[in-house]
Amino acid sequence: MKPLRLIAAGAALTLAALAGAGPASADTPTAAGILQAGAQQGVADGYPGVIGLVRQGDTTQYVHAGVGNLSTRVPADPTAKFRIGSNTKAFTATVLLQLEGEQRLSLDDSVARWLPGAVNANGYDGSRITIRQLLNHTSDLPDYAKDAGFSLTYALNARPDQAWPAQSLVDLGLAQRKPTGAPGQKWSYSNTNYVLAGMVIKAVTGNDTATEVQHRIIEPLGLHDTGFPTADPSLSGNHLHGYEYPVISIGIRDVTASNVQAFGPAGAIVSTLDDLTAFSRALVTGRLLAPAQQAELKTTVPVTADGTVGYGLGILHVQLPCGQWAWSHNGAVLGYFSDWYTSDDGARQVARANNEFHMLAGTKGQQDTGKATVDAYCAL
């Protein structure tokens, strides 16, 4: 598969990383060994640091290579916090599924029912788009992150505290192009969908997405190292510093403090490998949702023509080259790239994070560490 290219962040569905992973043989190294080798290769490719986690049942192993801070040269800590980017989308989708389970909304409600006039420009009609189509990316709404002015402002990181009201992001998205098809016809990834999803949460509950995620997911699961910043661009406590190789200058920049309002419900959460895998295990095994909503979560639409990748509600279902299926997602925001794979029963999990992202997908570092993550999962 060819890599998906990004000109702005939010998520990078680096499906190219799946290519080239083969079935394990009797003398194949352990999953942790494979992931460790991939982390070291990632550092050789130019990442400051790479961290990873392999979990089988209740046994967890960690890997790390490189540094978490280029100034102090402290080793990359696999328990450190980092920005999880579009892995946030699964949290946002979970809140809306819970609200449906409480009969406070239906995923088949139109966007216009809850957000009158929010999607009403350039040929788009919110009365024809459902909440479900937002969550599975079949709305045909353009991605505001592809707006040149937005992406340049975000990548330069000159104003990490700049306010980006949700409707302004939606408006940027709608202005990108006219509709290319009817809602529900095809899959097309768009951060605009999840900004609108967060706006629906606010309309239904009166609270922002961060508050609902805190009460409904973070606290019940005891995710003590997970937070949902809404304005503060800084990171505190034990965290990886995030970096970028700027396209327009030489060297590497520290972009640890970056704009969280730019992605909000689509990509603002800060977490750790432990918390992210605890959440994904709870999600795929039904701890967070009623049976009817669990079925909706895992009902997928095709992403690839060969049927090996489908998108549910905030999560991917992928068949890896070794033949195994896994639930997955990844996240890419300024300075950070991460992904995870979890088996349907939650027993097998692999996750990793890299502390450099410069708004382009398909780099050698992404390919090498991505392949190692897939190979590690296949070795479990």
Commentary on this structure:
By secondary structure, the protein is α+β, with helices and mostly antiparallel strands. It is built from eleven helices and twelve strands. It has an eight-stranded antiparallel sheet, with helices on both faces. Strands 3-6 form a two-stranded antiparallel ribbon. It has a two-stranded antiparallel ribbon with strand order 4-5. The longest helix is centred in the last third of the chain and has 16 residues, at 364-379. The two termini are 24 Å apart.
What are the defining features of this structure?
alpha+beta; 380 residues; 31% helix; 8-stranded antiparallel β-sheet; disordered N terminus
Short description:
The chain is α+β, with helices and mostly antiparallel strands and 380 residues long. Helices cover 31% and strands 15% of the residues.
Question: Layout of SSEs?
Answer:
Layout: H1 31-45, E1 49-56, E2 59-66, E3 82-83, H2 88-101, H3 111-114, H4 131-135, H5 148-156, H6 166-174, H7 191-205, H8 209-221, E4 243-244, E5 253-254, E6 270-271, H9 273-284, H10 291-297, E7 301-302, E8 309-311, E9 316-319, E10 325-333, E11 336-342, E12 348-354, H11 364-379
Antiparallel strand pairs: 1-2, 1-12, 3-6, 4-5, 7-8, 8-9, 9-10, 10-11, 11-12
Helix pairs in contact: 1-11, 2-7, 2-8, 2-10, 6-7
